[in-house]
Each structure stands twice: as structure tokens, then as C-alpha cells.
Amino acid sequence: MTETLGQVTYRAMQWWDIDTVLGIEQQLFDHDPWTAEMFWSELAEVPETRELWVAECAHVIAGYGSLRFVGSEGDINTIAVSATEQRQGIGQGLYDLMEKSAREHGVRNLFLEVRSDNEPAQAMYAKAGFEQIEIRKGYYASGVDALVMRKRLTHD
Length: 156
Known about the structure:
Elements: E1 2-5, E2 8-12, H1 18-28, H2 36-44, E3 50-57, E4 60-70, E5 73-81, H3 90-104, E6 109-115, H4 119-127, E7 131-136, E8 146-152
């Protein structure tokens, strides 16, 4: 599945994208980056319980995201955008695709953890309708707390 929004093309992540994605991961998350094994594990669960996307600008990967879905619950495992490409709507585009996919898979409650010191991401999620429901103290390897957030995709 491929979608183009403006100058950005969103497509399913492939195994050959892992090295590039790892470079972005290490650039952004110096204390607790995902490993190649973690990305391989995520890809192994596609399409049963995972979808992974990359965002390309001029055929260069600028960002990526991972969605997990099981039954009526889903998790945004990660959304990351290269430092040089941030604040251009790429993260929002990844999020929008993941929410759409979550709805298509019957997800009713979408969850995520976000670093307590990542105010831009918190603002994006709040704007998308997420509410903070919990704090996980020292959740990240660097000792930073995680804010647990939820968005109800259906209201019964």
C-alpha cells in the first residue's frame, strides 16, 4: 500500500529499509534506540498484528512508524522523523495512516507511550484527540518517564 500526500510518499516498510531506519533511530534516540532485531521482530508480525510504514521525501526515507493491533486495542509503537525533516507534517501523516489502519482493523482504543520530555510529540497526539491516562516512571532506558495516552476511536 502506497499513499502520496504532498511531497511525501508513505509505503509499507520492507526489510531493506532497516539500515536506513536504524540510522534515523540512532540519530534521534541516543539513550534507548530500537535495534535491528526489534525492527525484524515487528516486520515478522506483518500483516497479522502489525503494520510498519516509511515516509519518503525525494526517494529518501525521512520517517517511519509502527502500529500493533490485537482485537479491539491498538498501540502506536513508534513514530519517528529525521531531525532534518521534522515540523513538516511527516509525523502527522504517519499518524493519520496508522489511525486509519487501526480503524480498518476494528481497533476501538488506540494507545501509545510518549517521552515526558518530548513536547512536540505530546502536542501532536493531544491535537489528534489523545488523553493522558497514566505516567510510567523511568520507563525509558535513559530514566525518562513515559506518558501513556489513549484515544477512543469509537464511542459507545
